[in-house]
Design brief:
0% of the residues lie in helices and 66% in strands. The protein is mainly β and 77 residues long.
């Protein structure tokens, strides 16, 4: 699935990934390819991205993620 993590003015990450973990309002949310459409309100924590050849972590204070059509768009604020 394609994942983009951005702030208002900067793209922090954009690549195809195998797994994504988001710090949701009610706990961690794991997302894999072909996940159902959903929105996630993000709280303080870490986003963990597992790509084919690398793992990355991003520290989050708050934001929102939209999952749709094998794509995840994350906006950090």
């Amino acid at each position: 699935m394609n994942v983009t993590i951005r702030t208002i003015d900067t793209v922090l990450f954009s690549d195809s990934v195998q797994k994504l973990s988001l710090p949701g309002l009610y706990g961690n949310v794991g997302i894999r390819p072909h996940h159902a459409t959903m929105s996630v309100v993000l709280t303080e924590g870490k986003i963990h991205v597992k790509a084919a050849n690398r793992d990355e972590n991003f520290t989050v204070k708050n934001g929102i993620a939209q999952v749709s059509d094998n794509t995840v768009d994350v906006l950090l604020v």
